[in-house]
Amino acid sequence: MATTKKTAKTAKPAVEAVKKAPAKKAAPAKKAPAKKAAPAQDDLFAEPVAPKAEPEAPKAKAPAKKPAAPKTVRVTFSVRAEVGSKVFVAGSFNNWDPIAKPMTDKKGDGVYTCVLVLPKGTYEYKFVINGTWCADPECTDWVQNDMGTLNSVRVVD
Hints:
The protein is mainly beta. It has a domain at 72-156: Immunoglobulin-like (Sandwich). It contains no helices and eight strands. Strands 2, 3, 5, 6, 7 and 8 form a six-stranded antiparallel beta sheet that branches. A two-stranded antiparallel ribbon has the order 1-4. The protein is elongated, with a radius of gyration of 46 Å.
């Protein structure tokens, strides 16, 4: 019997590293639209049914138009009082708040003024001089109020 010698060189296993390419993701399959079956004999005389409409994509909103700002007018209120008095103007334009609109005596001569920016309209008002409510003595337009006293009236055009 003949013996053969196996050497380490000839018995070497042939192992090769196989590099795999990265797997590609498959694109998702699109659904085919469902096909309508042929109508049954009874359906031939039925009213046709409209196919369902696909929902519309939301439309881009057009920018909203800003309403025109009401025209405003600078209105000067003026009253004569003792120098050093605390004088305010109150009326329908400030919810009759007796201390919201202070008047100033810039020249120190007892003439108190206040400038308000008001939209066009008709306003009732009074002066509050040292805590006492007074109608405007220079205003010829007035109305009687719920308290039985007079309110001065200013029309802003």
